[in-house]
Amino acid sequence: MFYYVLKYAVLGPLLRLLFRPRIEGLEHIPDDGAAIVAGNHLSFSDHFLMPAILKRRITFLAKAEYFTGPGIKGKLTAAFFHSIGQIPVDRSGKEAGQAAIREGLGVLDKGELLGIYPEGTRSHDGRLYKGKVGVAVIAIRAGVPVIPCAMVGTFEIQPPGQKVPKIKRVTIRFGEPLDFSRYAGLENQKAAIRAVTDEIMYAILNLSGQDYVDEYAVKAKAAQAEESRKFPRRPR
Predict the structure, then answer these.
(1) In sequence order, what DSSP letters do the residues of the chain get, joined into one string?
(2) Predicted confidence (pLDDT) per residue in 56-81, tens digit
(3) Contact status, residue 192 vs residue 140, Cβ threshold 8 Å
């Protein structure tokens, strides 16, 4: 109930008023039935802007850290993400990937929309990074279409480290649904799930116009952090 109050009466109208998002390809989102919406991830704002413009409810697999923060702020953040129907997923340990797949399949089994960021984390520099194969495993097992989505302009309004977004117009594009029924039963084949994932990422790339990096974002972030540690910038 609280989800719909936020979406239609509070947060949704406010976000549409402030950011005036241009919406392209909304007709590709099915009116009913299970489907995966797979998008790029440029900003914390993505969590709110895309759901705000969809007619249907969409559930994202959110990182567990959003639900376990300390103090009053942490509790408020956890309560908010729970209230809008987001599912916490522990990304650490060997079972993390399997837990995310189980949760995602549970959403789709109910005939709902599942939102996934295949990169696994926000881009730290605005580029599109290599997709993780969990989205492919879920899509093949569930036998549902994947709708690619591109957020354009959200990195500029709220890059990493910026708590309050700039008020600036953004664009949200949806592409034609991708059908992976030809891969049925191959969700345990590495070549198959890599091919499906790469096809999804290519569709997102075509929509977003980003530069592509054939490396996982987490690895690239770690390398950048290590370089900053070794060669810190001197204050001017």
Answers:
(1) -HHHHIIIIIHHHHHHHHH--EEE-GGGS-SSS-EEEEE----TTHHHHHHHH-SS-EEEEEEGGGGS-SHHHHHHHHHHHHHTT-EEE--SSTTHHHHHHHHHHHHHHTT-EEEE-TTSS--SSS-EEPPPTHHHHHHHHHT--EEEEEEESHHHHS-TT-SS------EEEE-PPB--GGGTT-TT-HHHHHHHHHHHHHHHHHHH---EESS-HHHHHHHHHHHHHHSPPPP-
(2) 999 988 777 767 777 876 777 777 77
(3) yes
The pTM is what? 0.88
* Ramachandran angles phi, psi of 14, nearest 5°: -65, -45
CB 172 within 8 A of CB 49: yes
